[in-house]
Amino acid sequence: MKDLLRLRTSLSEEIETLLNEQIKVEAHSSATYLAMSSWCNRQGFDYSSDYFMKQSHEEREHMLKLFTYVNDLGGHAVSPEVTNIPQEFDSFRDVFEKALQQEIFVTQQFNRMADRCFKAKDFMTFQFLQWFLKEQVEEEYVARRALELFDVIGEEGTGRWEIDKNVRKIKYGEGAAE
Ligand code: FEO
Q1: Residue ranges for the binding site?
Q2: What is the Cα 44 distance to its own chain's centre?
Q3: pLDDT tens for residues 152-177?
Q4: EC annotation (predicted)?
Q5: Distances, alpha carbon 85 to alpha carbons 20, 34, 81, in Å
Q6: Count of CB atoms within 10 A of residue 19's CB?
Q7: What are φ and ψ of residue 15, in 5° steps?
Q8: Tens digit of pLDDT for each residue in 120-141?
Q9: What pLDDT score does 107 carry?
Q10: How far apart (Å, rounded) are the C-alpha atoms in residues 70 and 15?
Q11: What kind of fold does domain 2-167 have according to CATH?
């Protein structure tokens, strides 16, 4: 039965498993960003709350892109269980530090997957992953620029409110704070 199912997809079991693992990572990222959005909102950092809400939507789109790819190729995309979402953060800065760490982890995941696809001669998935690798350059850039605001502006006095206001101005390729 298993062999018959395999004939319906050109995805190897290994690559399909990796793609499903990544679907889970993206779902986890989306839920984590949602928790970050809620935390910022509760602290009165409205712009950062919106920023993380937008990031959460993007991660869900990434998840769906992977999900659709697996099913389009005749594989079995698994709807992920999402658990262990951090709801509390030590500080405003901690939220942005965790966000950058998350993006770096995701980049490493895609690099690892691309390496496995190349070795397994799955060039179709290898090519599909290029979009995500390119996207990670932008995601890391934005997360890094946001975190840098803490050093550029400083947290003293009204610093955190200034940081919050500047978070919304970060655009890839256009520099950070004005
Ligand atoms: Fe889907 Fe931010 O990586």
Answers
A1: 26, 59, 62, 103, 136
A2: 24
A3: 999 999 999 999 999 999 988 764 44
A4: 1.16.3.2
A5: 19, 9, 11
A6: 24
A7: -70, -40
A8: 999 999 999 999 999 999 999 9
A9: 98
A10: 10
A11: Ferritin (1.20.1260)
